[in-house]
Amino acid sequence: MTLKRSISHLSPGDLVSILFLFLITALNLVFHARVEQWLTLVIVNIAVIALVALLAWGAETKKNRLLTGLHRWYCYFIILFIFKEIYLMIRPIHPVDYDQLFISIDRMMFGVNPTEWMAQFANPILTEILQVAYFSYYILFIVLGVELYRRYTIDDFDKAAFLIVYGFYLSYLGYFALPGVGPRFTLHNFSLIGLELPGIFLTDYLRAIINAGESIPQSHPNPIEVVQRDVFPSGHTQLTIIVMTLGFRHRLKARWFLLSCGSLLVVATVYLRYHYVIDLIAGALLAWFTIWSGDRLEVWWRDKTNRLRGETLT
């Protein structure tokens, strides 16, 4: 199998995933003296790159339903894998938190700390609703993907999946550039959030799941030291806007659910003290850039692979 033919099988989502894996592999090599697990990460990354390329080839040439399904949906798992990998890389490579910068910008814009100002509206019912909405972030992608997969063309699904993974990777670059932990650690006492923002039934459980996903063990004596640096830009805001946009672009039946739930989710990022407002502004701008540049990149790569396929047949 020639290199051109191998490349021609890659979808836009495959392309950006492989490129991002190459990027963080290069970072592990450059900063190997700082990243303790660098060798393991490099080996795993190379294996994942090979697996993505093999899966793309198998899905295009074998026309097997299982391979095709895996190729369409693997992107939703690879972004989680990379999210946990960069957790092991960001602090060793860039051991500075920029929370004071974010706090200063928020105060300059509003004259107050927005999370402290919003505390006056706190009540258990509102907290419960917004905590559920915040947690729904992990469900919105599935709702979008399932309806596209069942009711629309594979190309529509692939385009949406590409914009989502592309958006995630752009947000990950922001985490490297400007690490931060968020106002629940800097402006508030993390250990008191359960008392200051109590819910009703699900809040504590959902909060614990989110904390675990951000590498905060229960009862850790100093959680700010172990939490994932993923504040700026707000990926929750960025990707939620992208999902809502795609819902209306394709006129999905679920579009109003995506809009209502997504809007509550964006409010929840500040109310629940996960983000500064400047994070949301950056996330919204990055959502626009993701869609604008992603649409063009997707068309360019489709044209490129079509030409490569034509060349391999002649």
Give descriptors for this structure.
314 residues; mainly alpha; 74% helix
Provide a descriptive summary of the structure in words.
The radius of gyration is 21 Å and the shape is globular. The protein has 314 residues and is an all-alpha fold. It has helices spanning 3-8, 12-30, 38-61, 65-73, 75-87, 90-93, 99-110, 114-118, 124-135, 137-151, 154-177, 183-186, 193-196, 203-213, 235-249, 255-271, 277-313. α11 (154-177) packs across α17.
Largest sheet: none
- As a percent range, the share of helical residues equals over 70%
Taken from the alpha-carbon principal axes, the silhouette is: globular
Low-confidence stretches: none
| Count of DSSP-assigned helices | 17
Total strand count, please?
0
Classify the beta-strand content into a percent band. Answer: under 5%
Q: pLDDT average, as an integer?
A: 92
- What is the CA-atom radius of gyration, in angstroms? 21 Å
What letter string, H or E per element, gives the SSE order? HHHHHHHHHHHHHHHHH
Secondary-structure class = mainly alpha
Amino-to-carboxy terminus distance: 15 Å
How many domain units?
1
Short description:
The chain is mainly α.
Give the SSE map.
Blueprint lengths: L2 H6 L3 H19 L7 H24 L3 H9 L1 H13 L2 H4 L5 H12 L3 H5 L5 H12 L1 H15 L2 H24 L5 H4 L6 H4 L6 H11 L21 H15 L5 H17 L5 H37 L1
Helix pairs in contact: 2-3, 2-5, 2-11, 3-4, 5-11, 9-14, 9-16, 10-11, 10-15, 10-16, 11-15, 11-17, 15-16, 15-17
